[in-house]
Amino acid sequence: MSPATVPCQYRTGKTLGSGTYAIVKEAIHIKTGKYYACKVINKKLMEGREHMVRNEIAVLKRISSGNPNIVTLHDYFETSHNLYLCFDLCTGGELFDRICARGNYYEADAADLLRTIFKAVAYIHAAGIVHRDLKPENLLFRTPAEEADIMIADFGLSRIMEEEKLSLLTEVCGTPGYMAPEIFLKSGHSKPVDVWAMGVVTYFLLAGYTPFDRDTPKAEMEAIIAGEYRFEPEEYWANVSETARDFVRACLTIDPNKRPTAQEALEHKWLASTTPHFVSTP
Ligand code: ADP
Ligand code: MG
Question: What is the pTM of this model?
């Protein structure tokens, strides 16, 4: 992959979304007429760290073709101001919006989605990569269909952005709600942070709200460090099995060394069986 200096092979269209560091636009590859999602990252935001970005892009390119539920990076180029990353276009929107539209997910549907995501997470962890920014805004559906594949997006660059983001999130706005205790404690962190984040996503899928929502970022951070959350209000949890709750508890284990790995999470009985265990059999 040799980066072109000018992104002239693509024409960009409407904005698909924006995150902390980038704007993502729909882009058409002029020669082939194929549509992509083009992530435009302002180089100023990563001054002095461009080499890290290039490394990360190489890794991203290598791993993204190895699992069907990771958004594939197809192309990358840069101008003096921006980096452009062209990914598979996901037209089904963010998991975040589907949760909001539905209120919450039925347990069996949630387990199906989580099984797929955890398999992809186990795959990237086996490749030595930590996502570090798993949340429903970064989990996209490939198509608008109800049963569309879920895809992990916003990959790889988070390691580089991380320190900046931590101060940004705790000082200004945004939600650190998916960040593991060890990130705040600055005690060193790695793959277990992805499992924690998926624990928060699981809670969100089942209840329709997140476990560590507090009035201020400081209170939220303290709740996370103390692992302070409940399966309440009860009416939102009435239909959620003990097995599912146990899965959430395991992922939200404060000590990263005692937290299950992604592979172990897949072996938890809530995800291990595809037959919904909470339906009693005669
Ligand atoms: P950031 O690092 O700034 O959070 P993301 O990669 O998460 O950037 O992209 C921001 C938003 O753009 C996503 O939350 C999503 O709504 C949209 N987006 C990102 N990648 C794609 C894609 N491949 N297809 C469709 N929309 C996308
Ligand atoms: Mg994002």
Answer: 0.88
